[in-house]
Amino acid sequence: MAVTIIVMACLVAAATAGVVPATPITYATTGYHGAPDAKVVVEDYNDHPQYSFSYKVHDVVTGDSKSQQETRDGDIVQGSYSVVEPDGIQRTVDYTADSHNGFNAVVHREPLGANVASVTKVAAPISYAAAPVVHASPVFHTAPVVHTSPFAYSPPIYHH
Question: Which keywords annotate this record (predicted)?
Fold first, then answer.
């Protein structure tokens, strides 16, 4: 009973939040198996998309240095990105993508020399020590052994 109440409360909360539509969805069925009709409505379709963006980061404190630029004109994308690796080598990737040739990239690597501010991150060495192993002696709980026999000796009883 409690589970039913909780499930109903969750459904009401989802319906009021807009996750579940308040009105039931009905599908027009076609064919023997009753598959729903697929109707795709795309309102904002751009048959020739165009954009251009770029960014650059150079943080002296952390040593992070990277950049990227990209342009798109229809189905043709051209761009490049670069990053300074921890060993002081700058990796630059120039790339193009289109529907005829696919994605192509050319990678260049060049040392930057002494004029690059590099930050060496040094972490304190971590030493691991195994926890001490204590071997305890086995504990034996022994009770006194009492041997009784039906032929045990008992002193005679005297009556006065």
Answer: Cuticle, Signal
Per DSSP, what are the bridge partners of residue 92?
82, 108
Question: pTM of whole model > 0.70?
Answer: no
- Most distant CA atoms of the chain, gap in Å: 131
Is 22 inside a domain boundary? no
**CA angle centred on 113, ends 123 and 104, rounded to 5°:** 90
Spatial strand order in the sheet of 89-98: 50-58, 65-73, 76-84, 89-98, 102-111
pLDDT tens per residue across span 3-30:
677 767 766 666 666 555 555 555 555 5
> Token pair of 153, please?
């000796």
Residues of the domain holding 114: 46-121
Q: How many domains does the chain have?
A: 1
**Other C-beta atoms lying within 10 Å of the C-beta of residue 122:** 6
Token pair listed for 95: 């790339």
Q: Does a structural domain hold residue 50?
A: yes
Under 8 Å between Cβ of 105 and 93: yes
Flag whether 35 is in a domain.
Answer: no
Structural domain includes residue 128:
no
Residue 18 has phi, psi (to 5 degrees) of: 95, 5
- CA 40 vs. chain centroid, Å, equals 32
